[in-house]
Amino acid sequence: MSLRCALLAVALLALLPSPARAQALVADLSDHLIAITAGFAGTDVLLFGATEGEGDVIVIVRGPEMPVEVRRKARVLGIWINTERIAFSGAPAFYRVAASRPLDQFANEALRARQQVGIEFLRLVPERQLTPARLEDFRQGLLRNKVYEDLYSAKVGDVSFLGPRLFRTRFSLPANVPPGTYTVEVLLVRDNQVIAAQTTPMLVNKTGIGADVYDFAHRHAAVYGLVAVLIAVLSGWTAGTVFRKA
Amino acid sequence: MHLYLPIAEVSLDVFILLGLGAAIGFLSGLFGVGGGFLVTPLLIFLGVPPAIAAATGANTVIAPSVSGVVSKLRRGGVDMRMGLVLLAGGLAGSAASVGLFGLLRRIGQIDLVVSLSYVLLLGTIGGLMLSESIQAWRRQRGATALRKKLHKHTWIHGLPLKMRFPQSRLYISALLPIGIGFGVGVLSGIMGVGGGFVMVPAMIYVLGMPTAVVVGTSQFQIIFVSANVTILQSIGNQAVDIALAATLMVGSIVAAPFGSRIGARLRGDQIRILLALMVLAVAVQLALNLVLRPVDRYSISTPPVPAQRVDR
What we know:
The structure holds 2 protein chains of 2 kinds.
Chain A: H1 3-15, E1 25-29, E2 33-36, E3 43-51, E4 56-62, E5 65-76, E6 79-92, E7 95-99, H2 109-115, E8 125-126, H3 132-148, E9 152-162, E10 166-173, E11 180-190, E12 193-206, H4 209-219, H5 221-242
Parallel strand pairs in A: 2-12, 7-9
Antiparallel strand pairs in A: 1-3, 3-10, 4-7, 4-11, 5-6, 6-8, 9-10, 11-12
Helix pairs in contact in A: 4-5
Chain B: E1 2-5, E2 10-13, H1 14-31, H2 36-46, H3 50-73, H4 80-107, H5 110-141, E3 162-165, E4 170-173, H6 175-191, H7 196-207, H8 211-237, H9 242-265, H10 268-291, E5 298-301
Antiparallel strand pairs in B: 1-2, 3-4
Helix pairs in contact in B: 1-3, 1-9, 2-3, 3-8, 3-9, 4-6, 4-8, 5-7, 5-10, 6-7, 7-8
């Protein structure tokens, strides 16, 4: 679906009489299904929508939640070793946020904490209690590593308005985007209050031969192992015979 | 050009993978070491999860080893008999290492033990090898070819169960290669590598095998050890990425003959110097990792990591 068609559709939708008219916020994605094929090297997803009335828009993209273990190294007898570890739950595998204006101009901390807007407001639940300072160090360690892997971003992307009501934003999924069910949350904010919200699912899925390989590896693990060995032996054997000549 | 790896769940440049494969093949052909100690860290550096890097590395190493054995068989470059005896010890050793691995995990410092034993082992082996081979090389250049005694008799030759290994021109106790195979098997089980870089020096210095036979024989037994690891990792962890292995193998198969050809042209002492330098380089690298302040003291992983070797 081209952007123009999509925007037109949204515009028409927004002009329609009730019940669509009653909605303060309508948004949709250019793709609900991200197919990870053999040549996948990341992709861009476009979100577009329309608002009813005044307000700022925040878009939050979250990957499936997975537990994460954070380890901390310390120097013992001159050697750096992992001395402490803690697991967190509630960390999305992927996280991006975009807004129509700098967040501090329209969203206060209470709102951002409630809606988990920005990586510093992610609700990461530690498996056990630590002193607040130490816990914060581990939290920061987790976020730093996730940003380094390009799975989180500390930056806030742009949501641009085209006229008073139509908006759009674009976020890129890197090549290492974890498969799973994502949610794309769109918030309409006015006076530090969320006055409308919409959540759209987005599925990131392996398809084609890659998916088949993955399935096979998990369903018939022993056969898969044998096949892997067989491929290696055969290709080695062929090469050894071909290059034998002289 | 990118290739999405279905098990590793990352997308990598095909040409980087082919180049990495070529490096493995070259080393395999030249030294008879599988290159597992090289490929696993490099894959991790490229972003492949550690468990998958180790398992897939083992799978990859099979191909150049097979092609090496195939091409050396007819030149008499493989001592089958020795290979089988080493292998018997190796399989017993890797079975034993499973228990040891579990014990170290329970203590909670498996990574440290692995890194430290790597550094000590590689440092010692590399250092000894380098000094020996440089001496041999200088003797050769000095033309005053001081003929050493073919071999010295030590307590080692008093061991029972003597066996004849015609291809290696040895008449030694079978306990010796079984013991070495066992030791290397334990190491490879814990470290997650084929162990060629330990096996090759052991064959040269402890067993006294001629360098010409060592490479092929080492490759011969690496085939079986790596196949064992590949199948166990597939069943236990689903950690073998066939797409990744296949791409690496294409590179390694092409490069292995060049390694063999260069290896055939070099003298034994020259090969040993090169191998010693490489082993030392890895040891230094690992030692630096242990001693230098890490870029980030915090690291993350997703915990449902199966109970298996994860690093290096």
